[in-house]
Amino acid sequence: MASQAHRAQNGRRRFRFDFGRLAAYVLLAVGSVVMAFPFLWMVLSAFKPLKEIFRFNFWPQVWTLVNFQDVLLRTQFPRWFLNSLIVAGISTVSVLFFASLVGYTLTRLRFPGRNLIFILILSTLMIPTEMLVIPWYVMSTEYGWVNTFWGIAFPGLIPAFGVFLMRQFFESLPRDLFDAGRVDGVSEFGLFWRVGLPLVGPGLAALGIFNFVGNWNAYLWPLIVAKSPSMRTIPVGVAFFSGEAGTEWNLIMAAAALAIIPVLLVFFIFQRQIIEGVVLTGVKG
């Protein structure tokens, strides 16, 4: 009798647990639809003729690729795409190397003022970007960096967030590994390159992806420093094109759809590294 009551109680517990999980799945599904609907609308609108844009039909009645052809031929979109790729690539390579090097230095080398330097680096996160634009522009003007790839890329070469992230990962590594390497005669840079970096792969992957996406979507600084149309990046070029195209929403949607292709590719290819890096960062923080 007692065993039957115990089984009945366990059955009720499992039912409540399953009901809660079902409710969570329903809420997540609804949230996903709400978040994905504008994106799907944009992509589908990119395949619609202009006359269908204002009919509020979700699926195009007539599928066309003319919108993409017009964007690629009527604008400098391929040039903007290349500019964004160059700027994002330069900044990502720089961040992966220098942020990890600074993070290693702040954790594995002992010198006076180490913690103070780290606090000063973190304090720069509290400064709004809008306050840094003027000194950046003055410096770019004095050194002739205006309207150059270097001028667009240099503010994001060593971000404070990257230093903080890599310091957290290096802090979690066993110190005995580096002490053993020093006993074997390995240089500090060799310890960083051959011992440290392979062990912080998830952190490097997450930092590289976040930095690439952030620089790809950057708008304010490229808008200020890129003077000529040929030096515009994707966000700046699409914004100017939106103003020039006026009510040609089919072309605007096509340009926006083309602009997000690299971001989607990065996410789908490296989504495991993104999730792993975020999880490990939360554990180590």
Task: Report on this structure.
By secondary structure, this protein is mostly helical. It has two domains: 2-45; 66-284, MetI-like (MetI-like fold, Orthogonal Bundle). It has helices at residues 2-45, 50-53, 66-74, 77-108, 114-123, 129-143, 149-153, 160-171, 175-183, 188-199, 201-216, 220-225, 234-245, 249-259, 261-284. α4 runs antiparallel to α11 (201-216).
Brief description of this entry?
With 285 residues, the chain is mainly α. The protein is 78% helix and 0% strand.
Q: How much is the radius of gyration in Å?
A: 25 Å
Structural shape: globular
Any idea of the CATH topology of the largest domain? MetI-like fold
Quaternary organisation of the protein chains = single chain
Separation, N- and C-terminal Cα atoms:
51 Å
Q: Percent of residues in helical segments?
A: over 70%
Q: How many structural domains does the protein architecture include?
A: 2
The averaged pLDDT comes out at 85
Structure classification? mainly alpha
Give a count of the beta strands, DSSP E runs of length 2 or more.
0
- What profile does the largest beta sheet have? none
What's the order of the H and E elements? HHHHHHHHHHHHHHH
CATH architecture of the largest domain: Orthogonal Bundle
β content, as a range?
A: under 5%
Per CATH, the superfamily of the largest domain is: MetI-like
